[in-house]
What does this fold into?
Amino acid sequence: MTNATSVQSLFNTIAPVYDRLNQVLSLGQHKIWKQMAVKWADPKPGSQALDLCCGSGDVALMLADRVGPFGTVYGVDFSFDLLDIARERAAKAKNGDRVQWIQADVLALPFDDSSMDCATMSYGLRNVTDIPQSLAELYRVLKPGSTFAILDMHRPSNPLVRGFQQWYLDNLVVPAAKQMGFTEEYAYIAPSLDRFPTGKEQVQLAQAAGFSQVVHYPIAEGTMGVLVGTK
It folds into this structure.
């Protein structure tokens, strides 16, 4: 996944199984971790909230609960097919009308400067083609004093946990993807983890983009983490 077209193609392809394989990939814990990210982003009633790389829409709807009937959530994704699934999910949700779904590149967001009260991103930063630019865009659109929270997979520093993570990917995640006909699409996860900046490196990148009070919280023995920062 070296260019924007291949990223878009990948997520359009896996859209039908995206939720099921996230369940497998996270040992069923991804909803808990996403709720943690939403809490750290600190959306308030009436907020203008942004969910980048929104996928099938579950985090955007979590934000919609927090912003209430007078707030708005903008769910942004590069994948047309995932956005279609998100719209279907929102149509069945009581708070779905609080979310606007937007097809866009997170490296060039279609929002004004200092227009958003908070932002989340789940499993998206590892897949963007330019992490510093994505953080710069996030900084641009957030209001001063606003907070972001970015959840993603990581390579744990503990060699035993790292070994288990790789075993799990090789023996459970990829075979599950194979059963659904998506072996090649999910084989990219391990190399993407190897390329992904560590938590400490992510803090430095966010600070370079202008954010203050940046902290990276390892979770699930370091196999996951949430980067939190304030503009």
Observations:
- The domain at 4-153+195-230 is CATH 3.40.50.150 (Rossmann fold).
- The mean pLDDT is 88.
- The chain is about 45% helix and 20% strand.
